[in-house]
Amino acid sequence: MNIAIAGLGLIGGSFCKALSNRTDHNIWGFDINSDVTKKALSEKSISRILSPQDFREADILLICLHPEISIKFLNENLSFFKEGTIIADVCGVKTRIVNEMSQMCRSHNLRYVGTHPMAGREFGGYDHSVENLYDNRSFIITPVDDTDTDALETVKSLAVSVGFSKIVTASPAEHDKTIAYT
Question: Per DSSP, which regions of 40-131 are E strands?
Answer without folding.
Answer: 48-49, 60-63, 86-89, 111-118
